[in-house]
Design a protein that fits this description.
Strand content: 15-25%
Family: Belongs to the PurH family.
CATH superfamily of the largest domain: Methylglyoxal synthase-like domain
Number of helices: 20
Distance between the termini: 77 Å
Pfam families: AICARFT_IMPCHas, MGS
Number of domains: 3
Structural class: alpha/beta
GO biological process, one term: 'de novo' IMP biosynthetic process
CATH topology of the largest domain: Rossmann fold
Shape: elongated
Domain MGS-like: 31-179
Catalytic activity: (6R)-10-formyltetrahydrofolate + 5-amino-1-(5-phospho-beta-D-ribosyl)imidazole-4-carboxamide = 5-formamido-1-(5-phospho-D-ribosyl)imidazole-4-carboxamide + (6S)-5,6,7,8-tetrahydrofolate; IMP + H2O = 5-formamido-1-(5-phospho-D-ribosyl)imidazole-4-carboxamide
Radius of gyration: 33 Å
Length: 543
């Protein structure tokens, strides 16, 4: 027994020694590297929110270096600070274009504290270590947005600041970068909790944030210089240039999601809960569809899963809503509703009877708002006049697809009549209306309409015949008479079957792109059966 115990004891000692060596090596390879901040360079454009951070650093015995207005700000707090000029031996020169671009500063940030050669050179050239850099950038985007002249804009391209950010972030193993005033409060909290020190994980995190800031900034400058150039690459999606909003979840509850963009610039949220991922996708579909009717009489559209289940134009908002709802009152339940007109009390009272997720309008009467706010979670958005991007992005595989937005909307003057019978005036109006809806409906799609009202659509089908049959069945299910109705197709008919099925259902006029090698089959059927058909030459696939 004693021998067994002796072996066990020796094994324990051996294993303890092995683990001790392991953790020692691990600490060398993957160090926690908690570092006490002993010196900091602070050079910022905006001073708001800076004071608590400066006082905390001072109270922790941190030596402060600074420049220009920031130096004055710190001195006014009765806190000692050393001018950067004392390190560099040079004043701020060239109108402030060169202040911190000097080895005494950049070297103090970049030299590696665990590299004997770097340490020796720092000592040789009397370069002090700089452990923390707090810097923000000249307000380039704000200056562009203000309408300032090009000379003023160019002077707001930051050189020293962006160099400080990149240098400090690169050397995150030794230095901490605070690259935005939005970080001041959280850094104060961090340094308070850790008694003025940071860990490698902290410094790596802020380095990542810093490179996002620099990417954003360079992207804004790139957009300024390439704006209006004909020979420029497609605008890239730079999510770092946009504000972000974490959503409750993605398309499904098990998916995380974030929105990058300025929702507050597009909408004033007047009431209701926060927008979800699916809400935003439907809102985007709503906005793109209703913009086709920007100059039309009052129009209401009801969207469900990005497709219109109802849309109508009428002399009054209430009539337009009533007609849109009649298209498919079943699908309208839980949908997103949008209009191009002011919502008055009479319309609000009808809208209030429907369970909807979101209502979007350019204006609301005050008494209408009071009615609509009676539902706690209903989201009410007032749309602002904002120009939307004309480039679209879609992630696929390990890359991104970029394309121009589909901005082509064909009107009656662009229709080419290809049949012996021409459409009547009312049919032309209905064809134009149907084509606008068709453009914003998932392919393959067929849209059936009468003047200023959707009757039904077949959406996202694998064949055009299936889409047509779905549309006919839906229209009949909600009591619509298809006699005298029109049909729009997002792509050409490869055979005559669709025009035959439509004709037998009562359709009297058709609009389609044309371009099939068998166009004549469809045209011949229409001529033989008194159906009018026009082509546009423009396809509107939507995948």
């Amino acid at each position: 027994m004693s021998s067994i115990l002796a072996v066990s004891t020796s094994n324990f000692v051996l294993f303890s020694a092995i683990f001790a060596v392991y953790f020692s090596v691990r600490e060398i390879i993957y160090p926690t590297m908690s570092k006490k901040i002993q010196s900091a360079l602070i050079s910022v454009y905006y001073k708001d929110g800076l004071e608590p951070l400066v006082r905390l650093l001072h109270n922790n015995g941190v030596k402060l270096y600074s420049t220009g207005g920031t130096q004055t700000f710190i001195e006014n707090l009765n806190i000692p600070v050393t001018a950067a000029e004392e390190l560099t031996g040079y004043p701020s020169i060239f109108g402030g274009r060169v202040k911190t671009l000097h080895p005494a500063i950049m070297g103090g940030i970049l030299y590696r504290r665990d590299d004997a050669g770097d340490v020796a050179q720092a000592q040789q050239y009397n370069i002090p270590a700089i452990d923390l850099v707090v810097v923000d950038l000249y307000p380039f985007e704000e200056t562009v947005a203000s309408g300032a002249g090009e000379e003023d804009i160019i002077e707001k391209i930051d050189i020293g600041g962006i160099s400080l950010i990149r240098a400090t972030a690169k050397n995150f193993k030794d230095t901490l970068i605070v690259s935005s005033r939005s970080q001041y409060a959280e850094v104060v909290e961090l340094l308070t909790a850790k008694a003025g020190a940071t860990d490698i994980e902290d410094r790596r995190y802020y380095a990542g944030q810093a490179f996002a800031v620099s990417s954003h900034y360079d992207g804004a400058i790139n957009r300024f210089f390439t704006a209006g150039q004909e020979k420029t690459d497609k605008e890239l999606f730079d999510f770092t240039s946009l504000a972000s909003q974490t959503l409750r979840y993605g398309e499904n509850p098990h998916q995380n999601a974030t929105y990058y963009g300025d929702l507050e610039g597009i909408f004033d949220k007047l009431h209701g809960k926060e927008l979800s991922y699916n809400n935003l996708v439907d809102v985007d579909a709503c906005v793109n569809l209703i913009d086709e009717f920007a100059d039309a009489a009052p129009t209401f559209a009801i969207i469900k899963h990005t497709n219109a289940c109802g849309i109508a134009t009428a002399p009054t908002a209430k009539e337009a809503y009533d007609n849109a709802l009649a298209c498919d009152p079943v699908s309208a339940f839980g949908g997103v509703v949008i209009t191009n007109s002011k919502v008055d009390l009479a319309t609000a009272e009808e809208l209030n009877k429907l369970f909807m997720e979101i209502l979007i309008a350019p204006e609301y009467d005050e008494d209408a708002l009071q009615v609509l706010k009676s539902k706690k979670n209903r989201i009410l958005l007032k749309r602002n006049a904002v120009v939307l991007p004309q480039i679209m992005f879609k992630t696929i595989l390990n890359g991104v697809l970029v394309q121009d937005k589909d901005l082509s909307t064909e009107v009656q003057s662009q229709f080419t009549t290809v049949t012996e019978k021409a459409p009547t005036a009312s049919e032309l109006t209905a064809l134009e209306f149907a084509l606008k809806v068709c453009k914003h409906t998932k392919s393959n799609t067929i849209v059936l309409a009468k003047e200023n009202q959707l009757l039904a659509s077949g959406t996202g089908q694998t064949s055009r015949v299936d889409a047509l049959r779905q549309a006919i069945d839906k229209a009949k299910a909600f009591g619509f008479d298809l006699n005298g109705a029109v049909m729009a197709s997002d792509a050409f008919f490869p055979f005559a079957d669709c025009v035959e099925i439509a004709h037998l259902a009562g359709i009297t006029a058709v609009v389609q792109p044309g371009g099939s090698i068998r166009d004549k089959d469809s045209t011949d059927y229409c001529n033989a059966n008194g159906v009018a058909m026009v082509t546009t030459g423009i396809r509107h696939f939507k995948h």
